[in-house]
Design brief:
Length: 202
């Protein structure tokens, strides 16, 4: 395949690579190294048998999340303080009204979700993910896109629901911690909903 911007994203043989291999083309450039072409009837592009080497490690995903957290924390704290309900509606003392806590929870959650949505819909990677050379794609290797980004953030958006949102957040967090280490493709709850996967790009 020639490196032309008109070629749709997908797995192709790259000139100069060993015979019987393929790489992922994201529509603009090659991502990752050459991978063996799966035998007929083998697993999908990111199945355990042929694409495990491309799956992002739990530690790179955690590192990306920490970077994104520090990017977001200042504006979220400022907004929470201005509204008076604290970060994600978790006020610092018992004097915070339910209304202030509710509004703060809605606004700060919306900012965090909008941040993720913008970058994931744009090119599948937040600044944190780009820094750690990982990105989110669909299970078939195509770009996540707006629809995939929206589905992947459904569970996060539910965090804005008073009381119930906190419970959902705890359940999703625990599920994420377990599944990122135990799932064969390291798909956490958000990945299951969006049918996405997180891969290495280098």
């Amino acid at each position: 395949m020639t490196d032309t911007p008109t070629q749709p994203p997908g797995w192709y043989y790259a000139q100069g690579d060993p015979p019987g291999t393929q790489r992922y083309w994201d529509g603009a450039q090659w991502q990752g190294g050459p991978q063996a072409v799966p035998a007929a009837g083998g697993a999908s592009a990111y199945g355990a048998s042929d694409g495990a080497a491309l799956i992002a490690s739990p530690w790179s995903r955690l590192g990306a999340r920490i970077i994104d957290f520090f990017i977001l924390i200042i504006p979220l704290v400022v907004v929470g303080a201005v509204i008076g309900g604290g970060l994600y509606g978790l006020g610092g003392d018992g004097g915070v009204s339910f209304t202030a806590s509710f509004i703060s929870g809605i606004v700060t959650t919306a900012i965090a979700v909008a941040y993720e949505y913008y970058f994931l819909a744009k090119d599948g990677a937040t600044p944190g993910k780009k820094a750690l050379n990982i990105k989110v794609v669909k299970e078939d290797g195509t770009e996540l896109g707006q629809d995939g980004a929206m589905k992947r953030l459904i569970l996060s958006a539910l965090g804005a629901i008073p009381i119930l949102g906190s419970l959902i957040g705890i359940i999703v967090f625990l599920g994420t911690v377990v599944m990122i280490f135990t799932d064969s493709r390291r798909q956490v709850p958000a990945d299951k909903v969006a049918k996405s996967i997180v891969i290495r790009t280098s």
